[in-house]
Amino acid sequence: MELKKYLSIIWRRKVVILITAVLTTVVVLTGITYYPTSYEAIATLRVASSRNEDVTYEEMLYVDRLTRTFARVASSSAMVEEVRHRLNLSESPIIEAEVLPNTELIEILVEHQDPEIAQKAAELLVEMVIGESEHLGSKYNPLSVVENITTSQKTVLTPPLILFLGTFMGLVGGMGLAFLFENLDKTLYEEKQIEAASNLPTLGKIPKVGSNKTILSAGHSPCHLTQSFHILRGNILLQSNGNSLRSLLIVSADPKEGKSTIVANLACSMAQAGKKVVVIDGDLRRPKQHNIFEVSNDIGLSDYLGNNLELEQVLQTSDSGIDVITSGPLPADPISLLNNEKVSAMMSDLTNQYDYVLVDAPAVLGVPDAKLFASQVDGLILVVNRAKTSEEAVQLAISTMKEMQAHPIGVVINRAEFKDGYYYYTHTSKME
Fold first, then answer.
1. Residue 107 and which of 87, 152, 219, 407 are 20 to 30 A apart at CA?
2. Is the pLDDT of residue 279 over 90?
3. Could you say which of 3.30.70.1130, 3.30.565.10, 3.40.50.300, 3.40.50.720 is the CATH number of the domain covering 39-151?
4. Is the Cα torsion angle 82, 84, 85, 91 positive or negative in sign?
5. What is the DSSP string of 305-320?
6. Angstrom distance (rounded) from CA 371 to CA 29
């Protein structure tokens, strides 16, 4: 993967990374807080080499062996147990002894949670080791205390260093989790992913503008939103060269992907380009166009199909100047109602009267309603909600659309990431 893609994943999963880093830091600090404090008492002993000024090589080897022997004796289990017994301790202190390199010195370390006990244990151990050396008959190489025994708190890590290490470990672990989640997550976040999953070109990218259903004709739409719908309109008009795409079915894989709002705004954008447009709310289960255009839903598509009304009786003109056929009263069986020859007659009549007919249909994977419109339109557009729709859902939707014998012309990415450059690419000059 490219560096840019790595950075994109890190930014997308920043919450996971931050939470992991904070939790790790808190756990580390809590652990250090409750970790018992230890104290170290250090004693340094010296093994004299010889009273003579001239020291032979054999004497040096002997002193070296003797020094190692005393170090081993000092840390032996017998000595540790004897210290525990004499001081009447419930647990034995930690005792370590080592020969300092290239010297005649032995460093003895006694560790205990009580500084006084650590001090007493070190003093007792020194006394016992010196006594043991005399017992072994090393009067020509006596042991002596070089420095007074010192006791100090054992330092593991300083709080600032602990904080840094905890945060660093959390960040590393968080990034690991971020990439793990990214591999497991099949949600589509980028245009390339959506195009690869659908195998369709991107007709437009609609930026996130909040939860409100913004209508372009209201006069207060954000500039980048207006421009994005003009680009979508321009791409459709380019594909419709020769009026081959007069009627369009707009669908999504799953519900709540913003499809209905996109249909309404696309109609407004086309009307602003001088096109005569009509919107049909083909969702007889959860209709939205009457709310978006603020028109009555007392009469609509269900009445036209089921009550033998004329097309003119169900057509309404909204305040934005867009003609709308709302869903009408919701029927008990939408499938039976839509499986009607009048759907074909309606689409034929509307195509003759309008430049563009836009049909807002239910989600492809939810119900089979969209299938009944698919054969009646010139083209189909799939709306994909970025960062919500999964790769599997898009691929299944495309497969379903092929079964409908529909003609998909491209995808519209909803809640796209805003990039200034996108709104000024080459299609802009061809849209009007």
1. 87
2. yes
3. 3.30.70.1130
4. negative
5. HHS---HHHH-EE-TT
6. 60
Does residue 28 register a pLDDT over 90?
Answer: no
For the sheet with 94-99, list strands across it.
94-99, 105-112, 39-47, 143-153
CATH 3.40.50.300 occupies which residues in the chain? Answer: 189-430
Please name the fold of domain 189-430.
Rossmann fold (3.40.50)
| pLDDT at residue 34, rounded to an integer | 66
Which amino acid does the sequence have at 288? Answer: K
**Model pTM score:** 0.63
Residues spanned by CATH 3.30.70.1130 within the chain? 39-151
Q: Which residue has the higher pLDDT, 412 or 27?
A: 412
Other CB atoms within 10 A of residue 206 CB: 24
Q: Choose the most confident range, by mean pLDDT, from 35-44, 212-221, 319-328.
A: 319-328
Using CA atoms in the order 215, 216, 219, 222, what is the torsion angle rounded to 10 degrees? Answer: 100
Amino acid identity, position 86? R
How crowded is residue 52: how many other Cβ atoms within 10 Å of its Cβ?
9
Furthest CA-CA distance within the chain: 128
